[in-house]
């Protein structure tokens, strides 16, 4: 990998670190202003919705200038969202502004990989990016939790004299600090090299942009390789969003864990994803990316098999680690969640790389990532909506897990069947690694 790639990694780490720290600080800010509890989950909705609503334009924007400059501007917009949150803007609206920045940032972040690196290095690059992103998610949540602590937030308020400009709460002190992380990411973005790739200027007319975007969607969904990789990543991100909440409820139901302890189990799943991503980067070349599809079935099977597990099924006692006593039930559950994460990371990284490659060949880097983001985040909104309905109907946690696991297994089985049918009609695997035609 060249130096430009490592610069991209550094910028991505800082940006993702701030995104996840800001979520914790925004939750604390809602609590400090006495907002109703139902507003808290809406933070994620307001953040994600930009990926869907702006999908027709963010790809065009990412291709309109060097992608390092795009990443600089979008991180600066995120910092502005923090300032809006501090100075009078409603947290949901301000977090939506940050979501706009994130939606425009993503096509540039992934699109530049296809411009900077040859196809055979995309799996390795995605493995590092995904592993680093997972690490930033874990550290970002920890950073957000640390910054809202009184012993940390109060010195920030004092040192910068924030109380003199009307900022008094610990959450506001944390958000002020997080804005500087976004600014640091923006500075690193300036060091990203210009790849020299230029695309024909596109019109930003609303009607033409939507038509062009829908044409890009059809092109990728009709491509024999694109439709398989896009199906998998769309399923993964929708299922991952549900799993994020489902793990918390399962920890409460099966292990008697509170919210903070369940959040640690979320981090365990993320650790597994990072391990799977690194393994995929080391073991799976782009040419063999489709060989990982059965891992999706394994992921669904593991979730299904653990649905009715409870702490009473594990032996009594536990293991002492760093002065803490951890029960065998929790250790067993953590082991299974790591396996779930490994399966997820191992199959999604090669699929991401294949999808980026095919999108770059068929259209442009920015437009293809925008199509990917649209489908994946639409899946998140739909699957979270379905999950909310299951909760509304008071379905038990084990039953919900079984439905979730069987859905993942069935969906991945259908994807594998579709791929084999495609290959029986026409061998498209020789197209993997093909250079851009136009």
UniProtKB/TrEMBL annotation:
One of its GO terms (cellular component) is plasma membrane. CDD domains: MFS_MefA_like. It holds the Pfam family MFS_1. Signal peptide: none annotated. It comes from the Bacteria. It is a multi-pass membrane protein. The keyword Endoplasmic reticulum does not apply. It is found in: Cell membrane. The chain crosses the membrane at residues 21-39, 45-63, 93-112, 168-192, 228-247, 259-282, 289-309, 329-355, 376-393, 399-417. Keywords: Cell membrane, Membrane, Transmembrane, Transmembrane helix, Transport. One of its GO terms (molecular function) is transmembrane transporter activity. This is Lysophospholipid transporter LplT. It comes from Sutterella megalosphaeroides.
């Amino acid at each position: 990998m060249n130096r430009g790639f490592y610069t991209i990694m550094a910028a991505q780490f800082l940006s993702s670190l701030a995104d996840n720290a800001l979520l914790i600080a925004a939750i604390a800010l809602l609590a400090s202003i006495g907002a109703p509890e139902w507003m808290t989950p809406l933070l994620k909705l307001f953040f994600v919705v930009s990926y869907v609503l702006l999908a027709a334009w963010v790809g065009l924007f990412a291709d309109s200038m060097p992608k390092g400059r795009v990443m600089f501007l979008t991180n600066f917009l995120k910092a502005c969202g923090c300032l809006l949150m501090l100075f009078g803007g409603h947290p949901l609206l301000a977090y939506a502004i940050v979501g706009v920045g994130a939606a425009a940032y993503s096509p540039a972040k992934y699109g530049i990989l296809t411009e900077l690196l040859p196809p055979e290095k995309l799996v390795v690059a995605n493995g590092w990016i995904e592993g680093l992103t997972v690490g930033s998610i874990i550290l970002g949540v920890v950073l957000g939790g640390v910054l809202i602590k009184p012993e940390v937030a109060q010195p920030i308020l004092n040192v910068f004299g924030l109380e003199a400009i009307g900022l008094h709460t610990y959450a506001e002190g944390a958000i002020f600090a997080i804005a500087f992380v976004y600014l640091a990411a923006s500075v690193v973005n300036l060091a990203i090299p210009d790849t020299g790739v230029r695309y024909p200027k596109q019109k930003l007319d609303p009607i033409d942009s939507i038509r062009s975007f829908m044409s890009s969607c059809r092109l990728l969904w009709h491509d024999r390789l694109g439709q398989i990789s896009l199906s998998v990543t769309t399923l993964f991100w929708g299922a991952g969003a549900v799993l994020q909440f489902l793990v918390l409820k399962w920890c409460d139901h099966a292990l008697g864990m509170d919210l903070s302890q369940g959040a640690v189990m979320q981090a365990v799943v993320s650790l597994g994803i990072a391990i799977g991503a690194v393994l995929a980067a080391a073991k799976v070349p782009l040419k063999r990316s489709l060989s990982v599809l059965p891992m999706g079935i394994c992921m669904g099977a593991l979730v299904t098999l653990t649905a009715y597990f409870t702490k009473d099924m594990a032996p009594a006692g536990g293991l002492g680690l760093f002065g803490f006593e951890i029960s065998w039930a929790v250790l067993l559950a953590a082991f299974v969640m790591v396996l779930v994460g490994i399966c997820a990371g191992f199959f999604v990284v090669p699929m991401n790389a294949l999808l980026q490659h095919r999108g770059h060949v068929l259209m442009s880097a920015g437009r293809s990532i925008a199509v990917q983001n649209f489908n994946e985040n639409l899946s998140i909104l739909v699957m979270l909506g379905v999950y909310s309905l299951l909760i509304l109907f008071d379905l038990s946690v084990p039953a919900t897990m079984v439905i979730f696991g069987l859905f993942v297994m069935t969906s991945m089985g259908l994807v594998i069947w579709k791929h084999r049918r495609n290959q029986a009609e026409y061998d498209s695997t020789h197209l993997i690694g093909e250079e851009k035609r136009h």
